[in-house]
Write a structure and sequence with these properties.
By secondary structure, the chain is α/β, with parallel strands linked by helices. It has a single domain, classed as Alpha-Beta Complex (2-enoyl-CoA Hydratase, Chain A, domain 1). The protein has seven helices and ten strands. The strands form three sheets. Strands 1-2-3-4-6 form a five-stranded mixed beta sheet, covered by helices on one side. Strands 5-7-8 form a three-stranded mixed beta sheet. Strands 9-10 form a two-stranded antiparallel sheet. The radius of gyration is 16 Å and the shape is globular.
Amino acid sequence: MPVVLVEKQTPQIRAIVLNRPERRNALTLELLNELNAAIKVASEQPQERVLILRGAGAAFCTGLDLKEAADQTKAHATAEMVAKTLITLSQTRLITIAAVHGAAVAGGAGIMSACDFVIAAEGTKIGYPEVRRGLVAGLVMTFLRRGSRSSHDIFAPTSWRTKHARVAARLRIDRRQPRKGNWSGQPRCCSE
């Protein structure tokens, strides 16, 4: 089964689906390679305008696959691929939208942060668990600063816990949030 699915919505809109629902779309080298390739293919199509990134199953993405991350021979390659994916996603000419649900934590929150827009379902948990271990989410810091007023917004006392989409919206980590169950309607702006 492919770990990344590509769905053509219209001639201008393409959806890329992280497809490891049994592992909550945890990031592996294979998934990151396929995601990069899919983004590049979409970017090269002149008619493409919008890229929607979503996750299959119960969660958008829960970060690195810890089984693969435990393999020290793959650690450096995995970190490089995560960085490459974030850069590819943030520098594509396409408008990128992360349609987030369930959980977007660690690397999943990083991928979400690299997108131009985020639509998060109510109750979505967004977090950077590295902070609990005294680490900084270094690979995603550039993307976090882009949408936040200050670093205090990102790593304030509430960052010791996973943020819910509503809290993240107030911090401008998440720029738009639809009403519960209203994915087809017009999303309301978080600053309203």
